[in-house]
Amino acid sequence: MKTNDQAIMTQFPMGTLEQLGLLKMDFLGLKTLSIIEETQAHIRRRYDRELVLSEIPLDDRPTYELLSQGETTGIFQLESAGMRNVLRELLPNTFADIIAVVALYRPGPMEQIPVFINSKHGREPINYPHSVLEPILKETYGVIVYQEQIIEIAATMAGFSLSQADLLRRAIGKKKKEILDQQQELFISGCLEKGFTRRLAEEIYNLILKFASYGFNKSHAAAYALIAYQTAYMKANYPVEFMAALMTGYCSNSDKTALYIADCRRQGIEVLPPDINESETNFTVADQKRIRFGLAAVKNVGAGAIESILKARRERPFRSLRDFCSRIDGRLCNRKALESLVKCGAFDALDGHRAQYLASLEEAISEGQLVQRERQNGQITMFSLMDRQSKEDLIEDRLPEIEEFSDKERLALEKEMLGFYISGHPLEQYRPLLERITGLTDCASLKEARDRSTVKVGGVVSQVRSIYTKKGRPMAFVRLEDLTGSVEIIVFSDLYEKRSDIFQEDSPLVVQGKIDLKEEEEVKIIADSAVQLPREPRQLFIKIGAATAPPALAKLKQVLRSAKGGLPVYLFFEKEKKMIMLDESFQASAEPPFLKKIEKLLGAGSTRLEELKPGLWHTLTKG
Question: How would you classify the pairing of strands 569-573 and 607-611?
Answer without folding.
Answer: unpaired
